[in-house]
Write a structure and sequence with these properties.
mainly alpha
Length: about 140
């Protein structure tokens, strides 16, 4: 496994477990169009649950909405200034295509932000020691 990242922000950007900063949050590459959203039930390194409760990630829809609004502005404003306010269909098609292309990344980061902010797990550099002390074992 990779060495844990000390910064939670860097671990979030690398899509790593919020507790150990080592385990990957997603099972497959973002480029795998049929499986980009699949997450293991728990961290393969420390055993932290990635779904604290059923339906936990429904809240990430609000974060996704924010990303899509930002995408609309990030695409619409340059279109307006660079192409002299084109027809409405140009805005609609361009924003739709960019949003569809960014869907795997937006979904992954929305879920990661949701897990980091509301999942209840915090970075613990000594998670192995704490696990041994509470359970007497390193098994999950």
């Amino acid at each position: 496994m990779d060495a844990p990242l000390e910064s939670s922000s860097l671990a979030l950007l690398a899509l790593r477990c919020p507790r150990c900063h080592e385990g990957k949050l997603f099972s497959h590459s973002a480029l795998n169009i049929t499986k980009f959203a699949q997450m293991p039930a728990q961290c393969p390194v420390c055993g932290q649950s990635f779904e604290p409760e059923p339906g936990f990630y429904f809240g990430s829809m609000y974060i996704t909405f924010g990303f899509n609004v930002a995408t609309m502005f990030a695409v619409g404003i340059p279109l307006y200034f660079l192409f002299g306010d084109p027809d409405t269909w140009v805005y609609v098609v361009t924003v739709t295509v960019v949003s569809l292309l960014l869907t795997p990344l937006v979904l992954r980061y929305s879920r990661a932000i949701m897990l980091y902010l509301f999942g209840g797990a915090r970075y613990d550099a000594d998670w192995q020691k704490h696990r041994r002390a509470t359970t007497g074992s390193t098994d999950f």
